[in-house]
């Protein structure tokens, strides 16, 4: 998620720093050319259109779950165009485009919006306009699944909670008029209490390697069991973290004042804070999301190749710490 509309989410630069081996979504077999007379084709051989994939996306991550300030859905593309290769990424950067178009993607599903703030030009001289031009020239659609992907069941924070082994998981803040399982952030319990230092190492171990690493506020030896998580920038949810009596909060992009005030109010006790890479916290969702979309399309008799980006779009390249 993004904290607010001031964060357009798209990273203007990207690094080639090491990311762990990206588990690829199993590819379905190559689909033969579909003849014009589609009535002669068995359902298992059908290639979906952009419109078909948008319906599957709506089934998984309904636009009604998106925050009011967000911009989700189709950014570029014609609904009747066929989609035989779908590519998932956190950010639609130019390096990601190189990767996706080099593979022959006909649709990119991006977590962060390319165009969150209004623009008055998509001239190719600007990096966003260049992305739009390259997409259209390559016949590749772009779709944003952002805060609707955060809030949905199986969304970004659900994946984070699952990767950390949390139990009895529920939303940190439920979506108005949504299902009880839908909403921003998640809170749940570890199987047994663990030291904050050991828990931070577990958080570090599930995330892709990024320059900034993981920052922790709290006593390394203090025991934690109840854990709140929010993929992306989650400092708007501190009240919910306290209401849910979480021992520790895992999120990204924590700024000095909100973090400092939480720690002052806690007087050395809970909630402790773990600040991770924004990109890393959301990257975990890509593979389960790609799997889920592949399953829905396949259940509908469609056949597509789906792949997840292996590019680290965290904008930071290196960090200096005491002793280094
Ligand atoms: Zn985000």
| CATH-assigned homologous superfamily of the largest domain | NIF3 (NGG1p interacting factor 3)-like
- Unreliable runs: 3-18, 31-41
Order of helices and strands: HEEHEHEHHEEHEEHEHEHHE
* Structural domains: how many: 2
- Mean pLDDT over the residues: 89
Output the number of helix runs: 10
How far apart lie the N and C ends? 32 Å
Helix content: 25-40%
SS strand fraction: 15-25%
CATH topology of the largest domain: Udp-n-acetylmuramoylalanyl-d-glutamate--2,6- Diaminopimelate Ligase, Chain: A, domain 1
The hetero molecules present are: zinc ion
Main sheet strand line-up: 5-6-8-9-10-7
User: What is the CATH architecture descriptor of the largest domain?
Assistant: 3-Layer(aba) Sandwich
The helix-and-strand class reads alpha/beta
Number of distinct beta strands: 11
**Coarse shape:** globular
Oligomer: single chain
Indicate the radius of gyration in whole angstroms. 20 Å
What is the CATH C level class of the largest domain, in words? Alpha Beta
Quick one: biggest sheet?
6 strands, mixed
């Amino acid at each position: 998620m993004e904290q607010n509309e001031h964060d357009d989410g798209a990273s203007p630069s990207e690094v080639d720093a090491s990311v762990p081996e990206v588990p690829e979504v199993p590819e379905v077999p190559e689909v033969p050319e579909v003849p014009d007379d589609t009535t002669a084709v068995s359902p298992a051989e059908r290639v979906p259109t952009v419109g078909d994939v948008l319906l599957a996306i709506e089934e998984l991550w309904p636009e009604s779950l998106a925050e009011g300030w967000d911009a989700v859905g189709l950014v570029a593309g014609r609904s009747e165009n066929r989609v035989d290769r779908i590519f998932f990424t956190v950010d639609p950067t130019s390096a990601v485009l190189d990767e996706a178009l080099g593979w022959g993607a006909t649709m990119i599903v991006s977590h962060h919006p390319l165009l969150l703030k209004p623009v008055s030009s998509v001239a190719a001289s600007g990096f966003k306009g260049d992305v739009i031009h390259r997409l259209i020239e390559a016949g590749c659609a772009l779709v944003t699944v952002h805060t609707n992907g955060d809030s949905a069941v199986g969304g970004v924070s659900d994946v984070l909670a699952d990767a950390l082994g949390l139990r009895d998981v529920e939303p940190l803040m439920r979506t108005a008029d949504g299902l009880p399982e839908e909403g921003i952030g998640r809170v749940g319990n570890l199987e047994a209490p663990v030291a904050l230092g050991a828990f931070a190492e577990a958080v570090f171990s599930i995330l892709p390697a990024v320059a900034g690493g993981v920052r922790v506020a709290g006593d390394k030896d203090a025991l934690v069991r109840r854990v709140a998580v929010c993929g992306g920038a989650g400092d708007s949810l501190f009240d919910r973290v306290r209401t849910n009596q979480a021992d520790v909060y895992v999120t990204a992009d924590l700024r000095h004042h909100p973090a400092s005030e939480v720690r002052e109010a806690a007087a050395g006790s809970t909630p402790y804070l773990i600040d991770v890479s924004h990109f890393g916290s959301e990257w975990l969702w890509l593979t389960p999301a790609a799997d889920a979309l592949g399953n829905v399309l396949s259940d509908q008799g469609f056949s597509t190749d789906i792949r997840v980006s292996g590019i680290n779009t965290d904008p930071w390249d290196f960090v200096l710490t005491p002793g280094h």
